[in-house]
# Entry
Amino acid sequence: MAAQPSEKSLHIVTAFGEQPVFKIGDRVRVADRAPIGHYRVPRYLRKKLGGVEAVIEPAFVDNEEEGYGRNAGSRRHYYRIAFPMTELWPDYAGSPKDGLRIEVFESWLERV
# Structure
């Protein structure tokens, strides 16, 4: 019977997109793009700053590219981003603790 390899002896190479680009606590900005078609990032979030609250596992197929037949199965992550309400609406008069949490696909996020 052959010996089983130990975890230390396994060298796993991950494909592009399998490892998250961002981690919890990172500051990010939502990209400001105006592509034609149906995209899954609300306009009011574009150019806004927020913080990564969670990395959603596992990585997913890029549904925007997939919808146009331009995806070869590449995967990236969604992230739960926390935005203070005053970032989204500067005249917001509610509690400074109020915020919005929303999942945003990795291709829409920029490191700050």
The mean pLDDT is 86. The chain has two helices and five strands. The domain at 18-111 is CATH 2.30.30.50 (SH3 type barrels.).
